Each structure stands twice: as structure tokens, then as C-alpha cells.
Amino acid sequence: MRKFLTLALIGGGLALSACNAVQGLGEDIKSAGECGEDVMNGGNC
């Protein structure tokens, strides 16, 4: 029982950190797209 709880807690922690990493990646991609759009419209990043 103790091993199961330990594995469940570790797995939950990894899942949460993976979600944050994916969210951060999405924000980075969005930022790069906005930067490219600004450059095409004569602005800069």
C-alpha cells in the first residue's frame, strides 16, 4: 500500500510538471508567431 501511494504521488507530480511544460511551450510558440507578424508589418520584436 505504501509503495502504491508513493508511486501515485510521484506520478501526479510528473503529470503536473509536464502540463506546465506544455503550457509554457504553447506560450513560446504564440510569442514567436506574434513576433513574426510584427516584423512582417514593419515593426520589430
Summarize the entry for a quick read.
With 45 residues, the chain is mainly α. It is built from one helix and no strands.
3D architecture notes:
It contains one helix and no strands. By secondary structure, it is mainly alpha-helical.
Give the termini separation. 54 Å
Main beta sheet, described?
A: none
Helicity, in percent? over 70%
Encode the helix/strand succession as letters: H
The coarse silhouette is rod-shaped
Using the CA coordinates, give the radius of gyration.
19 Å
The fraction of residues assigned to DSSP E strands is: under 5%
Q: Which structural class do the helices and strands define?
A: mainly alpha
Mean pLDDT: 84
Count all strands and give the number: 0
Low-confidence blocks of residues:
none
Number of helices: 1
Furnish the topology, listing elements before pairings.
Elements: H1 2-40
Salient structural properties:
single chain, 45 residues, mainly alpha, 87% helix, rod-shaped
